[in-house]
């Protein structure tokens, strides 16, 4: 495991990264993400946002190029060896394990937990508003609570990179706001570098300093969220947002 001081985010560099699914379109990603930045990954459906996150997390391996995290080449490492946590839209939890056990997996895959681990689990559950729900199974939680359990696990893993793939897509607007606040709190506490794929520019505006815009398997624009939202960063982004407004 790459050593990174707790409480600090890692720099991420994607160097001439190439990838294609069997029979799929070639994709190529090039980017540098500053330590502790919070980056919205936006772009049309099928443009490659999830693939980009999977390449950083290690669920997919590039055919050429490198993923560097704090200068270390992690391109060939499996996901559990990378200094990264990932939260998906759903199915982040093991259905047969309790809330506390699901969080405990952030410390030990075999759930052999020390007293210190147990204290960290209780703290994380309190911080994410889940105190008293330790012994429930995921099926007895709401969608928002399940996502908070996933974030409690992120909290105790203390990895310097957090990747989120449309983490609020199945939540209503009030819960979305609550989750955005919680993620902002976690970032204030740990300063991890965050990349979040989202289709909603309001998520980006509320949480993310920066944005990358993905189109047809490439990052076609990068900049501050403010520049994107004010329409100055990318004509393609403006067209994408305009088209989404017509759909909604
Ligand atoms: N496991 C896979 N095998 C083959 N092709 C895939 C696989 N996963 C994704 N693809 C294809 O790769 C392309 C990029 O998909 P990806 O899921 O990265 O897009 P996305 O931008 O995250 O889309 P969305 O916003 O709909 O989630 C799409 O054409 C998709 O159909």
Automatic annotation (TrEMBL):
Pfam families from the UniProt entry: ABC_tran (PF00005)
UniProt keyword annotation of Translocase present: yes
Residue stretches making up the ABC transporter domain: 12-241
Alphabetically ordered keywords of this record: ATP-binding, Cell inner membrane, Cell membrane, Membrane, Nucleotide-binding, Translocase, Transport
Record carries keyword Nucleus: no
GO molecular function annotations of the record: ATP binding
SUPFAM superfamilies in the cross-refs: P-loop containing nucleoside triphosphate hydrolases (SSF52540)
Entries under NCBIfam families matching the protein: thiQ (TIGR01277)
Family assignment from sequence similarity: Belongs to the ABC transporter superfamily.
Protein name per Swiss-Prot or TrEMBL: Thiamine ABC transporter ATP-binding protein
């Amino acid at each position: 495991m790459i050593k990174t001081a707790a409480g600090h985010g890692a720099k991420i560099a994607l160097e001439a990264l190439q990838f294609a699914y069997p029979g799929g379109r070639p994709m190529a990603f090039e980017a540098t993400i500053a330590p502790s930045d919070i980056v919205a990954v936006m772009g049309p459906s099928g443009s490659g946002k999830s693939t980009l996150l999977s390449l950083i997390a290690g669920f997919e391996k590039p055919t050429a190029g490198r993923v560097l995290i704090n200068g270390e080449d992690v391109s060939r490492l499996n996901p559990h060896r990378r200094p990264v946590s990932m939260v998906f839209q759903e199915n982040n939890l093991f259905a047969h394990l309790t809330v506390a056990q699901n969080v405990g997996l952030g410390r030990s895959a075999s759930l052999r937990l020390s007293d210190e681990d147990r204290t960290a689990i209780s703290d994380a559950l309190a911080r994410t508003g889940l105190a008293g729900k330790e012994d429930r199974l995921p099926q007895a939680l709401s969608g928002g609570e399940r996502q908070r359990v996933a974030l409690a696990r992120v909290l105790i893993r203390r990895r310097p990179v957090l990747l989120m793939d449309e983490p609020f897509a199945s939540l209503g607007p009030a819960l979305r706001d609550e989750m955005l606040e919680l993620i902002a709190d976690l970032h204030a506490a740990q300063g991890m570098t965050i990349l979040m794929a989202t289709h909603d520019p309001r998520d980006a505006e509320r949480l993310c300093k920066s944005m990358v815009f993905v189109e047809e398997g490439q990052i076609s624009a990068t900049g501050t969220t403010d520049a994107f939202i004010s329409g100055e960063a990318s004509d393609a982004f403006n067209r994408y947002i305009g088209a989404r407004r017509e759909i909604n």
